[in-house]
Write a structure and sequence with these properties.
It contains one helix and three strands, in the order E-E-H-E. By secondary structure, the protein is an alpha+beta fold. Strands 2-1-3 form a three-stranded antiparallel beta sheet, with helices on one face. The radius of gyration is 12 Å and the shape is globular. The model has no long low-confidence stretch (mean pLDDT 91).
Length: 75
Amino acid sequence: MTSSDIPTCSAKGCRDAAVWVLAWNNPKLHTPERRKTWLACEEHREHLSQFLGVRGFLKDVVKLEEWVQPEGSER
């Protein structure tokens, strides 16, 4: 695996390695079972979770190594 293959944080301007998967869904646009994902480093996990949470979009926060992408999901 090269450094370009390492998943990085989705926070704007952050290039740190991702540790968390934030699974979310916009109920106005997506079917209930669909999950989109953002990746987060330790530093940005709480900020990104709050951003999605206040909008009612956040569905799950899982360690990257434990994440199993559901069928129909996308990053």
